[in-house]
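Worked Example 4.2. Consider the chain below.
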Amino acid sequence: MSTSDTADPQRFWRPSGADPHCPRCGGTGLVRRRVPVDHEDFGRALPCVCAERAAADQLAEQLQRLSNLGPLVGARLNDAELAALASARAACDFADEETEETWLVVSGAAGSGRTRLAAELANRRLQRGRRALYFVAADLLDLLRAAYQRDAQMPYPVLFQHAREAEFLIIDDLDLANPTDWAREKLYQLLNHRWSSRRRTVLIVGAGSGDKLNLARWIEPHPGVLSCTVERGRSASLYHPIGGPPEQILRNMTFETFRVRNGEDLRDDSCNLHSVKQNVLAWASDPRGWLTLHGGTGTGKTHLAAAVANAALERGQEVWFAVVPDLLDQLRLGYREDAPHTYDGLSAALRDAPLLVLDDFGTHSPTPWADEKLYQLCAGRHAAMLPTMFTTNLDLNKREELINAGALDPRIASRLTDERNHRYFELKAPDYRTGVSHRRSSKGRTGNRSGRRTSGAF
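Applying the procedure from the previous section yields the following structure tokens:
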């Protein structure tokens, strides 16, 4: 038997990705080592360097697909945004490996731009042909748990090893991961190895976050760690309207400018705007769970929703304000090659938005596609307990009638009436513009904001 470094191309199976022009293996992807006959590798077909390199590249690409960078691939900060983000220059130098430190901790309040900065760092490296992995801590832990299954996309030892050895790893929302004993152990093993081997690592945490995972040694300032605090005041880049009021108009739609009707303070039983305003104001100061405002046209639902958005923007929190029919139009547009955004990118941004306002919920044409897309959005935000505000003409007290009439998807209805995670208020008042009280049927509406007739709630 030959003991040469090359193998017969006709005799051995060629591993996927082997270089057909490799002078070492002749394109087979396999070689035999020139070793003594008593050596354990004598006569064995072993992977060629070209096959090993191809397998490593394939594995890296698979791991990249499993990461959370997906919709953020190619997302870059412009010069104005970089200037608005404190310490952004130091973080970019870290990504470019121009700093002595190999550990970067980015802290800041929700909506301050931490995740956008993380995406900038990852894309900065990818653009230069370097590797970069981005994971939300909770999702990384979920992947590791799932990797124990026999049908896992990537076995646990392989996934964990590559997370430990990645040349550049970003872990977002580290302080929000579920603090179980198993989670603490896995994160400790991962971070301890990366710290000891001096592999570049970026940890993203909230401002003043507690140490539920006992990871103080990794996130507290000490030698070898570059710390950046992201602080950004209110700016147009924090506000993302889809059919909603432009920011210059939104600025004037505050709780202070909200009037019950022509400046009159009507607080009798026929008009409850004052009490609803106070409840919405309380929710806006610390948004948790979901809030729905139900009422006829002109009762002030959109104004109160805009006031909630304004309060969040003043805190430096990112806000998406979407009119539902316009939102669905933009999602459809995302399938086109010439669209300014992709469907996946817009869908992910809406699903993960720190605060989402869905205005005129239930005024679009009821198609199966629309039902499915709204359900996916609502289900994702409900599972993550993300603050979401709805305005609608639908009376949720008549839930069964709405479902039976096809005006409300039962899956969405279940979440909208979940009292553990949802507050619901009806605005009882005449139309602010006309003084006419509008009574809506629970089986659908006769028109929407644009005046087009709709056949049902969705």
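The chain has three domains: 1-57, 67-230, 236-426. The domain at 67-230 is CATH 3.40.50.300 (Rossmann fold). Compare this with Example 4.1 before moving on.
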